[in-house]
């Protein structure tokens, strides 16, 4: 099987930069009048010389705190924003040219925006997409049937969108985005506001779309469960700059090189003789501690000698805790 990295990237960004220039205006009528004569302009750097490649079929998470430049990057990739400088090619096209043959091959879903008409059934919006993308009736019917089965929304296609729940509406939004069979799917906070069950169904669907169709997915999310469930690779952007690009597992090992260990005993035990551990906490018959990865085996052996074990759990640090620590650390610099 050919590796995605052996093929030309479907997304290639080099020194991608975006700045915004805007004028400042004081409040009140006087401030408004003064701004007509003399304006003070400010230029803000939203994305700063970001470089990356994404191969066909990859699922990549784009992470960062609010205002880091994630959504701006997605908008440049989808062609909604012009780049200020740098080179950007997606599927061999310059996104900002907004050519039909390019738009036919991508889709953008924003969790807080809607593509569906509010007062008509979702099928009406899907039929509009059929004409907009030039789908044949056979192709359209096949895609609608496949997506409706995967998303379990066949019974909702002829219901007014405004009468559906938030979770149902997001599934219909994904259906509208994918009905023309795009090769790349850009997702901006696709599970925002959804309950636990709806989030799980959306994640399962996206994994199926990637597996069955080979769709390349770039997703931004503040829900780390989305990232853990879908992405093997993550890119962290902060203050407009790319701070990390690599595997999620490697990020965990680098940011938190220790294992979290939780041992429960049949009776209280003495942990005073434990060696090579830190942050030891004892609560009744439960012991929680951290151990270096290369010392984890030796620590397990020590724990088994303390007394009769009821349960033993070893895990990496929670990815959400890791990301919070990273962002807080950078914001304090």
TrEMBL record:
Name of the protein in question: ABC-2 type transport system ATP-binding protein
Transmembrane stretches, start-end: none
GO cellular component terms listed in the entry, alphabetical order: plasma membrane
Biological process, per Gene Ontology: response to antibiotic
Membrane topology, as annotated: Peripheral membrane protein
Keyword annotations from UniProtKB, A to Z: Antibiotic resistance, ATP-binding, Nucleotide-binding, Transport
Keyword Magnesium among record annotations: no
GO molecular function list: ATP binding; ATP hydrolysis activity
Occurrences of domain ABC transporter (ranges): 31-264
Gene3D superfamilies attached to this UniProt entry: P-loop containing nucleotide triphosphate hydrolases
The organism of origin for this protein: Kribbella jejuensis
């Amino acid at each position: 099987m050919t590796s995605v990295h052996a093929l030309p990237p479907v997304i290639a960004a080099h020194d991608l930069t975006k700045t915004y220039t805007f004028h400042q205006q004081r409040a009140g009528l006087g401030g408004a009048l003064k701004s007509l004569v003399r304006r003070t302009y400010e230029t803000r750097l939203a994305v700063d010389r970001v470089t990356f490649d994404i191969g066909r079929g990859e699922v990549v998470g784009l992470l960062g705190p609010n205002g880091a430049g994630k959504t701006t990057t997605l908008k440049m990739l989808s062609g909604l924003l012009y780049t200020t400088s740098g080179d950007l090619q997606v599927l061999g096209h310059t996104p900002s040219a907004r050519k039909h043959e390019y738009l036919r091959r991508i889709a953008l879903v924003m969790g807080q925006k809607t593509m569906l008409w509010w007062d008509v059934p979702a099928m009406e919006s899907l039929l509009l997409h059929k004409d907009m993308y030039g789908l044949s009736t056979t192709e359209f019917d096949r895609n609608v049937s496949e997506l409706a089965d995967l998303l379990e929304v066949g019974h909702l296609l002829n219901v007014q969108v405004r009468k559906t729940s938030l979770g149902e509406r997001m599934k219909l939004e994904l259906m509208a985005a994918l009905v023309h069979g795009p090769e790349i799917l850009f997702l901006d906070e696709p599970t925002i506001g959804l309950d636990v069950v709806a989030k799980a169904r959306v994640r399962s669907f996206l994994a199926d779309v990637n597996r069955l169709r080979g769709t390349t997915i770039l997703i931004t999310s503040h829900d780390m469960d989305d990232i853990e469930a879908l992405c093997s690779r993550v890119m962290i952007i902060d203050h407009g700059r790319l701070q990390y690009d690599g595997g999620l597992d490697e990020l965990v090992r680098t940011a938190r090189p220790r294992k979290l260990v939780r041992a429960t005993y049949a009776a209280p035990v003495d942990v005073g003789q434990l060696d090579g551990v830190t942050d030891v906490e004892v609560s009744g018959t439960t012991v929680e501690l951290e151990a270096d990865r290369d010392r984890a085996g030796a620590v397990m052996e020590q724990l088994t000698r303390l007394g009769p074990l009821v349960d033993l759990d070893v895990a990496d640090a929670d990815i959400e805790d890791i990301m919070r620590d990273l962002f807080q650390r950078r914001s304090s610099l």
